[in-house]
C-alpha cells in the first residue's frame, strides 16, 4: 500500500465527515424517478414469482453492518422516511437483535452477514484452499450452529444471507459464500438466496458499492444508473463508511492487526 493510499484510508476511517445527508439525497433521487425499492429477499421472491423485471424500475438496497450498528439504524430511519425497503446483514460481532426486529417489522429485512470459512482459517491457521476444503464439513457445521442460534434468538426468518469478506479469504482465494454451495444445507435451513447467487445477480443491470475516499463508489456513482434508465440497480453500502465511530474503528483495527499478526506469524507452525 502506497503512502497516499494509507493517507486516504486513515482519512476515510477516522476523519471523513458524516455523509448521511448524501445517502438520503441518493435514495430520494431514485424514489423520485419511480424506482421501486426492494430488500434482497423481496426482489428474489419477485423473480421466483415469474415477474418480468426488465420492464420496470427496481432499486435493491443492501447494507453490510461490519462495524457500527448505530450507523445502520440511521440509514434505516432515512429509508423509513422515504418509504424505502432494504436488507441489513449483521455479523456476529455487530448483532443488535432489537434493531434487527424493528427493521424486519418495518417491512425491510435483517439477516446474517456470515464468515465461517474465514473464522476456521484463522482458528486452524489453514495454509491452502485444499486445507479449507478438507475442513468444509466443520465449517458448515459451525455455520449451522451460528445461523440456527441467531434465528432462534431473533425470531426472524433470515431467508437471505450475505457473505462477509475477510483478508484470509483473499489470501487463500476462497470466499465465505463457498460454504453455501450445498443446496441441501440451504434447504434444511430455509435459506432461499445468497446475495452473490448468480440467479439473483443475472438480473442486475447496474451494481454499485461504496468505497473509500477519494473515489467513494465502485465502479461508478449510482446516479449514473438513473441517467441510463437501468431497470434493476443494486447498491451495496457499509454504514460505517457513512458515519464513523472512532472508538469502534479503533477496536476493529486492533482486532484485525492481532488476527493478521497471529495468522501470518503462526501460519506455518501447524
Give an overview in words:
- There is one protein chain.
- The protein has 270 residues and is of the alpha/beta class.
- The chain has a single domain (3-269), classed as TIM Barrel (Alpha-Beta Barrel).
- The chain has 13 helices and 9 strands.
- The chain has helices spanning 3-15, 20-32, 40-48, 69-82, 97-105, 116-124, 129-134, 136-154, 167-172, 183-189, 198-201, 223-228, 246-266, and strands spanning 36-38, 58-65, 87-90, 109-114, 160-163, 193-194, 206-210, 217-218, 232-237.
- Strands 1, 2, 3, 4, 5, 6, 7, 8 and 9 form a 9-stranded mixed β-sheet that branches.
- Helix 6 packs across helix 8.
- The longest helix has 21 residues, at 246-266.
- The chain starts with a helix and ends with a helix.
Produce the secondary structure layout.
Elements: H1 3-15, H2 20-32, E1 36-38, H3 40-48, E2 58-65, H4 69-82, E3 87-90, H5 97-105, E4 109-114, H6 116-124, H7 129-134, H8 136-154, E5 160-163, H9 167-172, H10 183-189, E6 193-194, H11 198-201, E7 206-210, E8 217-218, H12 223-228, E9 232-237, H13 246-266
Parallel strand pairs: 1-2, 2-3, 2-9, 3-4, 4-5, 5-6, 7-9
Antiparallel strand pairs: 7-8
Helix pairs in contact: 2-4, 6-8
